[in-house]
Specification:
CATH superfamily of the largest domain: ATP-grasp fold, B domain
Order of helices and strands: EHEEEEEHEHHEHEEHEEEEHEEHH
Largest sheet: 5 strands, antiparallel
Radius of gyration: 22 Å
Number of domains: 3
CATH class of the largest domain: Alpha Beta
Distance between the termini: 43 Å
Oligomer: single chain
C-alpha cells in the first residue's frame, strides 16, 4: 500500500512511529504537511497538490491534524475522501470530536456517563450554571482549548464568578463542569481501535496541579481497566464515529465518566507506559479495513455494470 500521513512535523513521536511501523510492514509512506497542500477545483475534476505534484495515487491517509489547523487540514482530508482514498478517521468524525459541546451533546444522547455540565452565554446565568454543575468547586473550560489549556479549577463561588465573567469579556464560549473530586487528579486514557480498547494508561497530575495532561507534567502508568470502563470507551468512540480514538475517563462514585474523546490521540506516553506497539496495531487495522473498503467498492462497481448491461439488452 501507499500511505500518506497528514502531519505538521515528521519528527513528532506519533508521526515517526506510524511511519516506522508502516515501512516495517512493507508499505510506502509519505509524511505530508497539510498547510503545504492546495486544492485545484475544476469542473468535473478536483485535485490535491503538494510540492507542485498531484496527489492521486495514495491508498490510505492517516490524519494527524493539529487543532490549530483543523479547518484547513479537514479541507485537504475531505478532498482525499472525495477521491475515494481510505481515511483512518474521516472529516466529519474529526470535526465532531473537536467540538467539545457537540461531542458532549452526542454522548449524552447515547446515554454515556459524563460530568454534569452547563453551557450558556448570558451574564445573569452565572449562579444557575454553577448550580447545574453541582456547585463549587467547578471546572471552567474553554471550548477551543487543547492539552489542558483554557481549563480552570474554581474552588469558590467568587472565583468561579470571576473566571466566568473574564471569559465572557473575551466573548469566548465555555463550559462549566462538575469537579470529580474522587478521581484524585487522575484520569484514564483508553486507546480505541475499531471496536476494541487496545491499550490504556492512568495519567496522574503533578503535585499542586489538577490537570493530568502529560504536556503539563502529568505522569503516566499502565492501568487495568474494568469491563464497564472498556465498554464505555468503545461506545464513546462509536458515538463519535471514530475508527481510532483516545477516550479520557474519570473514575467517579457514579461509575466511569467520559471527559473527552480525542480524534488524534498521541502515542508517546501510551506506548512508553504500556510497552505496547500501538503504531503497528493501527497499520494492521488500516490493512484489514482498506481491503474491506476496496472489496465493497468493487462489488458496487460490478453491480452497476450489471445493471447497465441489463438495461442495454433488447
Amino acid at each position: 500500500m501507499k500511505i500518506a500521513i497528514l502531519s505538521q512535523n515528521e519528527m513528532l513521536y506519533s508521526t515517526r512511529r506510524l511511519k516506522e511501523a508502516a515501512i516495517k510492514r512493507g508499505h510506502l509512506v509519505d509524511v505530508i504537511h497539510p498547510l503545504d497542500c492546495y486544492i485545484s477545483i475544476l469542473s468535473g475534476k478536483t485535485m490535491v497538490h503538494y510540492q507542485e505534484r498531484e496527489l492521486s495515487d495514495y491508498d490510505a491517509i492517516i490524519p494527524r491534524i493539529g487543532a490549530s489547523i483543523t479547518f484547513y487540514g479537514s479541507a485537504i482530508l475531505r478532498q482525499f475522501e472525495m477521491m475515494g482514498v481510505y481515511c483512518l478517521n474521516d472529516t466529519e468524525a474529526i470535526a465532531r470530536a473537536r467540538d467539545k459541546l457537540k461531542s458532549m451533546q452526542i454522548l449524552s444522547q447515547k446515554g454515556i456517563g459524563l460530568p454534569a455540565t452547563a453551557f450558556a452565554h448570558s451574564v445573569d446565568k452565572t449562579s444557575a450554571l454553577i448550580k447545574q454543575a453541582g456547585g463549587v468547586p467547578v471546572i471552567i473550560k474553554l471550548l477551543q482549548g487543547t492539552q489542558g489549556k483554557g481549563v480552570v479549577l474554581a474552588e469558590t463561588y467568587k472565583a468561579a464568578e470571576s473566571v466566568i465573567d473574564a471569559f465572557r469579556e473575551m466573548d469566548a464560549y465555555f463550559l462549566v463542569q462538575e469537579f470529580v473530586k474522587e478521581a484524585g487528579g487522575t484520569d484514564i486514557r483508553c486507546f480505541v481501535i475499531g471496536d476494541k480498547v487496545v491499550a490504556s494508561m492512568l495519567r496522574r497530575s503533578k503535585e499542586g496541579e489538577f490537570r493530568s495532561n502529560l504536556h503539563r507534567g502529568g505522569k503516566a502508568e499502565k492501568v487495568k481497566i474494568t469491563p464497564e470502563e472498556r465498554s464505555v470507551a468503545v461506545r464513546a468512540a462509536k458515538a463519535m464515529k471514530l475508527k481510532i480514538a483516545g477516550v479520557d475517563l474519570l473514575r467517579s462514585n457514579k461509575g466511569p465518566l467520559v471527559m473527552e474523546v480525542n480524534a488524534s490521540p498521541g502515542l508517546e506516553g501510551l506506548e512508553k507506559a504500556t510497552l505496547k506497539d500501538v503504531a503497528t496495531m493501527i497499520i494492521e487495522f488500516i490493512e484489514e479495513n482498506y481491503q474491506i473498503s476496496a472489496d465493497k467498492k468493487k462489488k458496487k462497481v460490478d453491480e452497476t455494470s450489471r445493471q447497465i448491461t441489463k438495461l442495454a439488452l433488447p
